[in-house]
Amino acid sequence: MYFYKNLYVGSSIQDPDEVRRNLLIGKGQFSVYVITLSPSRPGPGANQLEIFHSAFLKTPYYRQNPPYIIGIASGKSEAVGIVRDLVQEAYDRTGSGDVRAYLFPHGVRVLYDKPQALPAVGSTADEGGGDGHIS
C-alpha cells in the first residue's frame, strides 16, 4: 500500500505513525478506517475517493491491488468528515470539487506498478503533492 505524503489524519488518531505501521504489517485495528484514491478511471461522474474499514486491506483484492491511502480516521463518521473537509478545501482553493486534481495537480501515473504523483516542473520529488509513498 502507498501513503499520501501529507496524509489526512482524523483528530481521534493518537499516533498516526503507529497506525501506518500497523496497516503495513496487517495488524488488526478495530476502529481505523482508511480513505483511498478510487481505482476507477478519473473523469466526469467517476468516484474519486473510497472509505472502508482497515480490515479490508487484508483481503486478496487489496493485497493484489494495493491502495493509495489519502487519510486515516477512527470511525466511519470521522472518515466522512475528513472527506467532506477535503472536498470543501479543494473547492475553496480551485473552484472545483475535483479532489484528485487538487491532491495531485500534475497527475498520478503508474510506474513499475506503483502509483506516483508527477513532480511539478522545476521542482524536486520532495516538494509538492502526494509523491511520498511507502511500499
Keywords:
single chain; 135 residues; alpha+beta; 4-stranded mixed beta sheet; two-stranded antiparallel ribbon; 4 helices; 25% strand; disordered C terminus
Description:
This protein has one domain. Helices cover 29% and strands 25% of the residues. The strands form two sheets. A four-stranded mixed sheet has the order 1-4-2-3, covered by helices on one side. The radius of gyration is 14 Å and the shape is globular.
Total domains, how many? 1
Mean pLDDT: 81
Summed up, the helix count is: 4
Bulk shape: globular
Instruction: Give the H and E element order.
Output: EHEEHEHHEE
Helical percentage = 25-40%
Counting helices, strands and paired strands, the structural category is: alpha+beta
What topology, given as strand order, has the largest sheet? Answer: 1-4-2-3
Poorly predicted ranges: 118-135
Largest sheet: 4 strands, mixed
Cα-to-Cα separation, first versus last residue? 6 Å
Oligomeric form of this entry? single chain
In short:
The protein has 135 residues and is an alpha+beta fold.
Summarize the topology.
Blueprint: E1 2-9, H1 16-25, E2 32-37, E3 49-53, H2 60-64, E4 68-74, H3 76-94, H4 99-103, E5 108-111, E6 114-117
Parallel strand pairs: 1-4
Antiparallel strand pairs: 2-3, 2-4, 5-6
